[in-house]
Amino acid sequence: MDTSPPSQFLVALDVEGVLTPEIWIAVANHFGIDALKRTTKDEPDYQLLMKERIRLINEHNISLVDIQSVISSLSPLDGALAFLNELRSVVSVVLLSDTFEEFIRPLMLQLENPLVLCHRLFVDEDGHISSFVERTPNQKFEAVRAFQNLNYQVIAAGDSYNDLAMIDEANAGFLFRAPDHVRTERSDLACFDEYADLLSSIKEIVGNSY
Fold it and tell me: Is residue 26 included in any domain, yes or no?
């Protein structure tokens, strides 16, 4: 008789581009700084990307409050809340993001406060972002590994270069609305463009475990 416990699943989702707009693109559009439109869909080196972002916003005298004002005007992507609510009705969900606690709260409130793990900013006395600290290096991968060590079967989905490590480490992984160059480079991964298709695939995996 098999006495092993049934599989417990957990879904790890990227945030920006999957559930919410890209924050830095919104900031770029608001302040007219095209160089800020570069995201983790374009640049695999997150440290390099963030250092350039901080350089640019300080060069243009943009404070944390300025950025938070832009973020407060944003809403989750169409259908994101309904997708997330239905997903949470069948499986535990954690959001893994390379954004910052100082950025993400207004959008998380609109998504009914899911668990989100992200980074922190250093802000100087003038209110400008001086640096940042990662929760841990390669945090999406490490989070998936940690959940697996707690005997979870992890299903991961994201859209960018910085999601590939967690997708590859997960027990099952998908791309969601990834740009063409990421789809081409990782043609081995299924890529969905509609929440219904991603939800169906996750439900199939979770349902088959019981």
Answer: no
